[in-house]
């Protein structure tokens, strides 16, 4: 889903362009690719084609929801992608979550291996409390973000870490239904969040 005119306009304004490449957060799709050498080669060939076609400066890998058992295979794939793109002087970055004990969303990332193969590790410092969290809370509380950065810096060279910050918040709703607390949320962008505060004089 790329647009040559968009890339041209961005570059004319002095921006570098790093499109996001995603695994659609599909662990089975990811498994089928990373354990198949031919599939990995085909993906890399496509990336090289897109880099040339769209005159790209970098690629951002956003691989999420990965089976923990595929951790090493994903790291190998990321190394192969990096090796191929670096030959064209293309920057490679990869998104990672704040370290936690959650198998498919955190333990599946080999952050140390990524640090050796990519140019930048992008810390997604948000969704401390996600959209379907069973409890309400901050998207990115100060202490949680701080501890997350400290944890990542134990595994990744500090010169390679970029912190991704949320430009959104969640409005939480807590209801007692059949004597049980039911939590739900709705996401708001910066303008929407400010309007809620202003409307409630908060």
Helix content: 40-55%
Number of helices: 8
Kindly estimate the percentage of residues that lie in beta strands according to DSSP.
15-25%
Protein structure class: alpha/beta
* First-last Cα distance: 40 Å
Alpha carbon gyration radius? 19 Å
Uncertain stretches: none
Mean pLDDT: 97
How would you describe the overall organization of this protein?
Helix 3 runs parallel beside helix 4 (71-86) and helix 4 packs parallel to helix 6 (111-117). The mean pLDDT is 97. Strand 2 (58-62), helix 4 (71-86) and strand 3 form a beta-alpha-beta unit. The protein contains 8 helices and 7 strands. The strands form 2 sheets. It has a 5-stranded parallel sheet, covered by helices on one side. Strands 6-7 form a two-stranded antiparallel sheet. The protein has helices at residues 4-12, 27-34, 37-54, 71-86, 103-107, 111-117, 142-153, 190-199, and strands at 20-22, 58-62, 91-97, 120-124, 161-164, 168-177, 180-189. The longest helix is centred in the N-terminal third of the chain and has 18 residues, at 37-54. With 202 residues, it is α/β, with parallel strands linked by helices. The protein is 42% helix and 22% strand. The N and C termini lie far apart (40 Å).
Layout of helices and strands:
Elements: H1 4-12, E1 20-22, H2 27-34, H3 37-54, E2 58-62, H4 71-86, E3 91-97, H5 103-107, H6 111-117, E4 120-124, H7 142-153, E5 161-164, E6 168-177, E7 180-189, H8 190-199
Parallel strand pairs: 1-2, 2-3, 3-4, 4-5
Antiparallel strand pairs: 6-7
Helix pairs in contact: 3-4, 4-6
């Amino acid at each position: 889903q790329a647009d040559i005119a968009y890339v041209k306009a961005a570059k004319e304004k002095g921006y570098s362009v790093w499109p996001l490449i995603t695994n659609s957060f599909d662990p089975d799709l990811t498994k089928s690719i990373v354990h198949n050498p031919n599939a990995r080669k085909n993906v890399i060939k496509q990336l090289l084609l897109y880099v040339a076609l769209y005159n790209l400066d970098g690629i951002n890998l956003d691989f999420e929801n990965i089976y923990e058992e595929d951790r090493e295979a994903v790291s190998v794939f990321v190394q192969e992608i990096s090796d191929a793109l670096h030959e064209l002087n293309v920057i490679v970055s990869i998104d990672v979550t704040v370290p936690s004990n959650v198998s498919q969303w955190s333990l599946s990332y080999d952050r140390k291996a990524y640090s050796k193969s990519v140019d930048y590790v992008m810390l997604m410092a948000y969704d401390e409390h996600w959209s379907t969290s069973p409890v309400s809370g901050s998207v990115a509380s100060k202490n949680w973000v701080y501890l997350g950065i400290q944890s990542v810096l134990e595994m990744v060279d500090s010169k390679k870490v970029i912190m991704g910050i949320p430009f959104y918040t969640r409005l939480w709703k807590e209801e007692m239904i059949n004597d049980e607390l039911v939590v739900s949320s709705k996401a708001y962008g910066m303008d929407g969040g400010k309007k809620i505060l202003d409307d409630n004089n908060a």
